[in-house]
Design goal:
single chain; alpha/beta; Rossmann fold; two-stranded antiparallel ribbon; 9 strands; methyltransferase
Length: 237
């Protein structure tokens, strides 16, 4: 499939949202390395060890102040954000994900917003904007627009934090085949066999760093040995 133009992503993004709505009940199998995502003791141990490195880096940014988490999913990173936050607002485009989030992180103080992140505008500002495993689902042509949203969400001096996937075969399910690293699309399969095409990008750390600097961000971007890219940033000046 060829890459759509900047104004022609509707069908691709709708397919992506359909996939995550359908995947909500099984999503945590991926992060917990269960079922099709179990890659054996050695790979699983590396995954959990590297995930803990990212958690530790996130905790080092505490106190977080008032936080908004974009594409919060089932709450994997909300659990890490909540203890250091004065307040936590989470946004996701899939009601099914938010339903699982409520079960996984049943704190009544959390504000949950169901909204398409490519159309949503915040009605207030925050000290920290966090997004886990979301940036790779933003098409290159919509990258600058997404970071305008991040900027709109932040108070002066506020920060963003992100974590995402490196291009690694064992990061995904055993019955998935990664498309070439330069592609913006991946085929993904659910446990019941249904397949979807989603946006999935793997920009190298230096490319991501340069792109963000050109957009006016001071950033610190790092990787773990095999699985994760992560970092934080503030607006220049």
């Amino acid at each position: 499939m060829g890459n759509p133009s900047a104004g022609d992503w509707t069908n691709s993004l709708e397919s992506q949202l359909d996939y995550y709505r359908a995947r909500a009940a099984e999503y945590d199998e991926w992060f917990e390395r269960k079922g099709r995502y179990d890659r054996g003791p050695e790979a699983n141990a590396a995954w959990f060890r590297e995930a803990e490195v990212v958690r530790g880096e996130l905790r080092s940014l505490q106190p977080f102040g008032e936080v908004v988490e974009l594409a919060a999913g089932t709450g994997i990173w909300s659990r890490e954000l909540l203890p250091g936050a004065d307040s936590l607002t989470v946004v996701d485009g899939a009601e099914e994900m938010l339903a699982v989030h409520t079960l996984n992180v049943p704190d009544p103080s959390i504000q949950r917003i169901h909204a398409d992140l490519f159309r949503w505008s915040p009605d207030r500002q925050y000290d920290l904007v966090a997004f886990g495993f979301w940036l790779s689902h933003v098409p290159k042509e919509l990258f600058a627009g997404f970071f305008r949203l991040v900027s709109d969400c932040l108070r002066p001096g506020g920060r963003f934090f992100f974590v995402d996937s490196l291009y690694t075969e064992t990061s995904t399910a055993s019955d998935h085949e990664l498309a070439p690293v330069e592609s913006q699309f991946q085929r993904r399969r659910l446990n019941d066999g249904r397949e979807f095409e989603i946006v999935k990008r793997f920009p190298p750390p230096e490319t991501l760093r340069n792109d963000l600097r050109e957009l006016g961000w001071d950033v610190d971007i790092r990787t773990t040995d095999t699985y994760f890219i992560y970092g934080w940033g503030t607006r220049k000046g």
